[in-house]
Predict the structure.
Amino acid sequence: MSELYQTRFVYGEALAEAAECYSEVVALDADLYTSTRTVTVRERFPERFLDLGISEMDMVSTAAGLAASGLVPFANSFAMFITAHCYDQIRIQICYPSLHVILAGSSGGLTQGPDGASHQSLEDVALMRALPSMTVLAPADAIETRAMTLAAVRSIRGPVYLRLGRYPVPNVLPSGYTFELGKATWLREGANVALLAYGHMVWAALRAADLLATQGVQASVVNMSTIKPLDTTAVRRAATASLVVTVEEHSIVGGLGSAVAEVLAEMPVQHARGRLLRLGTRDVFGESGLADELLAKHGLTPEGISAAVLAAL
Amino acid sequence: MIDAQEVMGLRRTAALMRRHIVAMMGADKAHHFGGSLSAADIMTALYFHAMRYDAYDPSWSGRDRFVMSKGHCVPAQYVALAMLGVFSVDELKTLKQLGTRLQGHPAAHLLPGIEACTGSLGQGLSFANGLALAARIKGESYHVYCLMGDGETHEGQVWEAARSAVQQRLGNLTAIIDRNRLKAMDRSYQADDLAALPDKWQAFGWRVVQVDGHDMSALVHALDWARTQSRGPALIIAETIKGKGVSFMEDQPAYHNAALTATQFEAALQELDRALAGLEDQA
């Protein structure tokens, strides 16, 4: 068994590395620095760490002011708080002038677990995807988390939403992997089904593909870690399978499932086009429970994904 | 320090600013007359006295920053920038027209001289905090000014920012409240709230002064004082009259956002012209 990582922890280390390499990097937090892992910057670069207290809107607007001054701020909180609680500030003060602010959402998806619906982040991708100029990223593993964090400083301009996870996953990307904005990665090739996933659902999709193979179903697995701008070429290629499946720890409303549906619906009629199956939470709120219990309930385990695919074929 | 002659010059500048504000808005179109006019003396004291600013290089890194948190009053800032020469006075008449840089609420990415995108009330002070913190992180010595409306302080984020600014000891930050006592529909405050406003800010740890926001000498002295408060943020509560300078608009909520008839527009311009001529005579 290879080593497991929570992407939020890897992010904390990568953020400190970014702060070391780039003097413009500033970390902002709203009283969650051990959870968001900005504690790394707090310890190593205290002059560039700002804990503004339990005031997320103020933090996000302050980050906009820092970015307007040429700094590269990372504003941190739980995924739902930094997106939904601060939506107006993100929209007007960051996205409208296209300021280079990185919003890091820790503990995206269901796997905040026992904290329940208020803390589970099932609409954040939909919210961020709707904003002009926003880039939406969700790393699949430790390798990609580091790559994205550094890329967010040096090669992406404008606002970035970086969705991080709490669920421990092994590395699924090759060690020489280089992150390219807007480029999906084919991790496995299979003719019958294409599984499109992001975050730790990529690992779940790979395991699901193993299970499907034992049933004679060959599945491709594609890491859609840039949710916006979406790799539409990859979606069109995936559509040549008879079944296209999006897998996300997020609502099926407005997330990757919707983004892929938009591409498929606008494809020329003569293009080969498989059916779409959207897996995720089905327009409901979360609830308290252990991460594994919640993932099982919503069909987002390898077994759940595999069963849904077999039922749809 | 400032002498009487400079104060008189600033009063003429403010009178001209008011005329430009009304002229750019014109007749028959809804505009935010009231708050732009109440802020005209404050804007004059800022741009023509307090701020270190180079109109020929509005992105100069050492410039003092101004954030118009009550974004609907940005016409007053547009006029200040045009009078300084950041862009042409002719461009003022494009206000809110399709394709203009002079949007209905400030667009920092479109127009030089605008620092922040605002328009959704309550967010500007937090942004100003960010500018002030950036000066500290980068070792710059500029000062940051933020203008809010009194009604705007109903927004909760204002108080988040008020607390943060003190926590971060932002001695390079001056906030100004244009206290015209009116909001879009009616009065901003019940009588009890009015008295409490300075107490609230003082309780948060701000250094607070109250001045007549149409007394140029008092405004200038307050801004000079605020700049010396290096250990934490300072607040100037400027007591103003909404619609100041056009008698039929003064203290009338209806002119928060309203369209003038052609007759009203002419009457307003004539009144502002008379005020300007009166100041010229005194010179």
